[in-house]
Amino acid sequence: MPPLPPSFARALKRFREHRAATAPRRKLRVAKFELGLQWILLGGLIGLLGLLLYTSSARMLTNPIVSTVGVDDPLFRDFAGPLLGADFLKGNTVEPLINGREIFPAMLAAIRSAQKSVTLESYIWASGEVSDQFCAALIERAQHGVKIHALVDGAGNLKLKLSDIDRMKAAGVEFVVYAREHWYQLKLNLNHRSHRKLLVVDGKVGFTGGVCIDDLWLGDGDREGIWRETQARVTGPAVRQMQAVFATNWLQTTSRLLTGPDYFPETSSTGQAMAHCFMSGPGERPENARLSYLLAIASARHSIQLAHAYFMPDDLAIEMLLAARQRGVRIVVIVPFKNDSRFGRAAARSRWDKLLAAGIEFHRYMPSLYHCKLMIVDDVFVTLGSVNFDNRSFSINDEVNINVIDRATASDFQKAFTADLAQSTPLSLAEFRDRPFYLKLTDHFCGIFRALF
């Protein structure tokens, strides 16, 4: 290869020297560009997350509710029922069922006695001993001509074996996954779930509470690994409203109506309790669950007893609880010592400081995971069902609760509350504020994302 001309060789040498001299600056510019791009992407992700939090957060009610009547005043049920879309009905019996040892036998006995229909909705259904009992009971009734409809959330049936589903379907059980009847029917809003727990038999007896079809609830809730739960067995006119809640999600999922006396028979009085059952969810009466709690808190005159697996009040709920304390209302809250979500537990703690400082009493249930969803007001009003005291239940999920106005019923549920209190450790303000710095930091960080829980 002939040598390069001297002038060209000198130019090439100067070019190489210039490239070598400016290389650090070029690298710095590239690094700055990449860093800037990373910040833009991070800002975009934060913006999207902020939008998600905004659109997911309970925000329809922004100012405190003021009530001039107590929960035992007939005026309370006159406005609370219509506001929640379900009038209070007289003539009901609402019985507490405590833990799996009482809940599952009662539910299974009702299924086995079915003559016309069984409608069952559950957030979680996991294969195991409890599932086998429910499958057997549903299959046996289906084979005798009873109409069986089972609806399970798409995020809650992941631990249910396909073979169990196939056995039920082969026997005539209509088993459907909420919001999509077929796997190819994609659900865009993955954060929205049906958290409802309902069982209605022949349109005459209903069950609701926090229990799912899972061995986690199998037992007496008195040791680690077995969850503590309260459920309600309902008879009377309010069962028609419970059936209507199930029928709504069934219609949304399958486009099929449940009609006639097999599902909605004429009901008669079975007791003395005033009660109603209401639905809540982003697609139907959004924030009903939140409104129900806030109406009762605003109307409390003497006492509020809260038993909740996830107690994560938003700013408005905190403001109204503090206002209740200023009116002289005693507020007692039972929460889990540990629950099934460390992130959720930390986010919940980020909301408790002002409440403890105002004299609201917190107690941590010790024997097992506490999964109750219950509030008792002034020894006469009870609300329970699938609703947690958090934004997910108040705004994001489909939920169901039954509200009861009756002193005898409230007394029955208070017995369980008092028993739980005896097995709980009080949490003082001093102890709460003395928790390690890293826990405070974790709580604050997780609290930023509380709208998702």
Which whole number gives the mean pLDDT? Answer: 90
Which spans have pLDDT < 50 for at least 5 consecutive residues?
none
Work out the helix count. 14
Which homologous superfamily in CATH is the superfamily? Endonuclease Chain A
Q: If classified by CATH, what would the architecture be?
A: 2-Layer Sandwich
Mind summarizing the main beta sheet? 15 strands, mixed
What's the end-to-end separation, in Å? 73 Å
Helix content: 40-55%
Total domains: 1
CATH class: Alpha Beta
Spatially, the strands of the biggest sheet line up as 4-3-2-5-6-7-1-8-14-13-12-9-10-11-15
Q: Tell me the quaternary state.
A: single chain
Tell me the fraction of residues in β-strands, as a range.
15-25%
Q: Give Rg in angstroms.
A: 28 Å
Q: Structural class, from secondary structure content?
A: alpha+beta
Task: Give helix and strand order, one letter per element, not per position.
Answer: HHEHEHEHEEEEHEHEHEHHEEEHEHEHH
- Indicate the CATH topology: Endonuclease, Chain A
What does this structure look like?
- 43% of the residues lie in helices and 19% in strands.
- By secondary structure, the protein is of the alpha+beta class.
- It has one domain: Endonuclease, Chain A (2-Layer Sandwich).
- A 15-stranded mixed beta sheet has the order 4-3-2-5-6-7-1-8-14-13-12-9-10-11-15, sandwiched between helices.
- Helix 3 runs parallel beside helix 4 (129-143).
Outline the fold blueprint:
Blueprint: H1 6-56, H2 74-83, E1 89-98, H3 99-112, E2 117-122, H4 129-143, E3 147-152, H5 162-171, E4 174-177, E5 198-201, E6 205-209, E7 230-235, H6 238-254, E8 273-280, H7 288-299, E9 303-308, H8 315-326, E10 330-336, H9 342-349, H10 353-357, E11 361-365, E12 373-377, E13 381-385, H11 391-396, E14 399-405, H12 407-422, E15 424-427, H13 429-433, H14 437-448
Helix pairs in contact: 3-4, 4-5, 9-14
